[in-house]
Amino acid sequence: MDNDILTSRFFSYDDKKMDTVVFNLPPHWWSRPYEYAWAADFCKKADIVLDAACGIQHPFKFYLTNYCKTVYAIDEDNRINDCDVMKNEIRLHFGDEAAKYFIDNELYKSVRLKRGDIRKLPYTNGKFDTIFCISVLEHLSDDNKWKAIKEFKRVLKNDGKVILTLDYPDTNIDTMEEIANKNGFKLAGAKDTTIPQNTINWCNQLYCFRMVLVKNGDDD
Fold it and tell me: pTM for the whole thing?
C-alpha cells in the first residue's frame, strides 16, 4: 500500500476526487468527493466492513457493496430502516434518476442496515476488517468521541483499520489522536498537520483532515 494513503493529513485540491459515488454528488458537498476517493482505496473484496453513522441518503455504504465482501451500516436516525424514506431522501439530494436506480437495483437490500449508536455498537468483538467513519466525530463531544473510538477498538479485528475524516477546527487534531491513543490505537502512518495553501475548504472556515488508525497491539 502506498505510504501516502496512510498519512494522516489535510485533503488538498491536488488529491484525487470522485464526483460520482453510485450517484452524482451535489456540487455543495465540498469535501465528500475527496473523502470518498481516499476511503475507497481501503476497500478489499474479502473484507467485512462497517460504515459508522452512515447517514440516510449518503451513498458510500452502497458503493462499498461493490468492493467488499459484506457491508454493515449503522446510524442513530430511526429512518435508516425505512426504504421509502431513504428513496425520498435520495430523490431530494440526487434527483429522480438516482431514486429510480436505488429502487431498481435494490440497493436497500445490499447493505446490512441497523439503527444504533456508534457509542454502543450492537456487534460482536473483532467483527470488522475496516471501519469507515466519514465526517462524523466532529459532531460529538470529546467524551462521546472517546466512547465511539473505544467501541471501534472492540469491534475491529486485530489487524483492522479505522478510516476517519474530520472537520477542522471543529475537531482538535491532537486531542483526537490522544483519544485514539488512550483507547488502544495508533496512527498507521505519518502525521502532518500543516495546512497547505491549496487545502480543500468550506468558506475558508472548515478544513477536512483524514486519519488512519490501527490497534497498537499492546493488549492483543
Answer: 0.96
